[in-house]
Amino acid sequence: MKREHWEIFKKASRLERLDKIPMAMIIDSPWIPGYVGVKHMDFFLDPEVWFQSHYKIHQEFPDIMFVPGWWWEYGMAAEPSVFGSKIKFWSDNTPSEYHMLFNIEDLEKFPEYEVENDAFMAMTLHRIRMQRQRVLDTGEILPFVTARGPMCTAGFVRSTTDFMIDLVEKPEWAHKLLDLCTRMIIDWLKAQAKAMGPTVEGIFVLDDIVGFVNEEHYKEFCHPYLKRICDAFPKDWVKLYHNDAEVQACLDHLPDCGFNVLNWGKQTDISEVKARVGDRMCLMGNVNPLEIGVRGTPEEVRAATLDVLEKGGKDGKGMILSVGGGTSPGMPRVNILAMESALAEFNKAHFGRS
Q1: What CATH number is given to the structural domain containing 20?
Q2: How far apart (Å, rounded) are the C-alpha atoms in residues 154 and 151?
Q3: Model pTM?
Q4: What's the structural domain count of the chain?
Q5: Is 294 helix (H, G, I), strand (E, B) or coil?
Q6: How many CB atoms lie within 10 A of CB 346?
Q7: pLDDT digits (tens, 9 = 90+) for 175-233
Q8: Closest by alpha carbon to 85, among 69, 74, 72, 70?
Q9: How confident is the model at residue 23 (pLDDT cuts 50, 70, 90)?
Q10: At 13, which helix (H) or strand (E)?
Q11: Which are the contacts of 303, defined by CB distance < 8 A and separation ≥ 6?
């Protein structure tokens, strides 16, 4: 992300009024390799392919704030790999993880983790150190450190279905696993910040599994652990939360965790989200990423974008245009340009600036 973009992102996160609505997109391995025409395995394992893929996109869309920007990731493999999950790599898809904690009581047998040395975390940190300066030499900065959240990580380690049962039948063990995951995530984020250097001023936590529980379970099994993560980092940092599953149970409580930016899915209309938390969080969303972003025509994208902006952006604060989640595999260039064009149209009409 360019430094000037980061300053805009920070102002938006603080609910400051902007002279126009900005646009940001979460981009990672589900979308990038297909868009630039490379194999996933090359994207993950060839540093030059990884660098040139990001560089091409950043040059192609210079006005979009990409989140987290340059993302050293192995799909969702890093966090569960530390706890022994089996990871499968595919030539033309992101890695998949398979749970290995068949009995949750075996948690007591886990060896102590070491984020600097374990599995894909060690490899990721090495890649950051190896390529950090080259990224900075492009004139961009590294503002975000990124991790899957506690519920997501626990679900990968235990299996999401079994973990959902554990919440009801073995809640004390579920808390033990969530506590372990939370400690690891905090250490993982801090290790990334150390490797990236002083431009880091934000955390980006992704946890869709929070959307699988009701409000009562959210308060018991999600909220305290998400809050611990936010509390572990400076108060003035940007704290971005992504959940493109269901947010009805957690929506009212997320600002109290410490998150100040929300990226959520298509299920909840932006008008409702703005009414419930728009005075406490910056909303980053939420054009339908699949049915519109991937499968829609440019005109359908334009209409959906303007609808989101009219409902969420007319006051010029607390709004960053995006899709409702990450950029979905297959989203074409013409539809990204259609979003940009619709945003320019909206900004000119409402703020006199495109």
Answers
A1: 3.20.20.210
A2: 5
A3: 0.97
A4: 1
A5: coil
A6: 21
A7: 999 999 999 999 999 999 999 999 999 999 999 999 999 999 999 999 999 999 999 99
A8: 74
A9: very high
A10: helix 3-13
A11: none
How would you class 337 by CB atoms within 10 Å of its CB: exposed for 0-12, middle for 13-18, buried for 19 or more?
Answer: middle
CA 134, CA 344: separation in Å to the nearest integer? 32
Cα 243 from Cα 263, distance rounded (Å): 6
Distance CA 35, CA 135 (A): 20
Domain that holds residue 149: 3-351
pLDDT tens digit sequence for 255-267: 999 999 999 999 9
Tokens encoding 119: 């599995």
Residue 24 is inside which H or E element, if any?
Answer: strand 24-26
Q: What is the pLDDT of residues 145-184, one digit of tens each?
A: 999 999 999 999 999 999 999 999 999 999 999 999 999 9
Closest of 61, 17, 50 to residue 123, by C-alpha:
50
Find where tokens 């980006």 sit. 204
CA 87/CA 99 separation, integer angstroms: 9
Residue 354, pLDDT score:
78
**H or E element that contains 215:** helix 215-217
- Number of helices and strands in the chain (H, E): 15, 10
Beta carbons of 22 and 321 less than 8 angstroms apart: yes
What end-to-end distance do the CA atoms of the chain give, in Å? Answer: 20
Which amino acid type is present at position 343? L
